[in-house]
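DUF749 domain-containing protein
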Amino acid sequence: MFVASLAGIFKFNELPEKYGPFVQYKASIEKREIKDTDEIAILNISGTESNHVLFLDSYENVKQIEEELKEADAEINYHTKKILEGHL
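Tokens:
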């Protein structure tokens, strides 16, 4: 199992360019139109070159995020979990 660590939480219009393709991909999967004010969490998946994108307004609690990550064979580290709880 991989560990997901928070790389950052950004508004879409402040998102570092390197995360753009990941965000666009996740938005296309969810058939979502991204707004400049959307809060987006980027999780780095340890041991991979991958990042996991979370549109924070799509979740009511961290449990939902944990379930989504479980499907990707990943779990959130403790500090990331606490930070995400504060943003939901």
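Residues 2-87 form one domain.
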